[in-house]
Request: fold
Amino acid sequence: MSKCMLCPRECGVDRERGQLGTCHAPAEVYVARIAPHHFEEPPISGTRGSGTVFFAGCSLGCIFCQNQEISRGVAGKPMSEEALADAILALADTGVHNINLVTGTHYTDAIARVLRTVKPHLRIPVVWNSSGYEREETLRLLEGLVDIYLPDFKYMSPELASLCSNVPDYVDFATLALQEMVRQTGPVVFDEAGMLLKGTVVRHLVLPGCRRDSLEVLQRIAESVPVADIRLSLMRQYTPDFAPRSAPKWLQRRVTSFEYDAVAAEALRLGFEGFLQEKSSATVAYTPDFTEDQTS
Reply:
């Protein structure tokens, strides 16, 4: 934290002294929401929900982020590592299917210490839910502590990645990160009820006007890891409600059926197994309510 290099941006700021990098997060861990969540992929949410821990701040900062209420600054409340460990164990006791750590890249070192404390007491998998923009070295801090990786793979085009997230090198880091995640987890493993116990599920959000980039993303994933070893979650939930007025006109609309169906067809052609979304998923209704304090 005295020279933060956790994410690929490698800001090098001294978070211990209150300096803030791109993630806008201080050294102290801030948590925005701890509660069951029922809108993840079916083998993660199941019937009892996924035990989500939403961390404040984000090292990527997409202009269309649906969680921007908590991702663009300090939100929620600070938690000591001891308090976070207690909260995770209490959440597990509610009967959720897993512990789902959402956007924790900029707190990876602290989270790894917490997981070393709680992991021996958990009887459910731990999920690392991230943007995919990760350093291999940082991910290795989580080896043996994370059972399921749930990364995004957002862009192939450096121009698109630069426009939407100011990271022209996104695809390079996302590719290496995905390979590291699959190396750690191995092929997907499900229990008798179809719940995911171990493995990697890659999410890709189809953006309006970006069909060709999505096709190239799928090709890159298929070239980087064994398709049979992972699952693909092809998302249609993009909504322009969160894009700024200054965003390009093509980001001011929803994805068309032609765009999404074309990408889904390519996923099938490449041999991916996984999950598709209905057109009705493109709504703000699926964004968690961060105004209600559920961290205590």
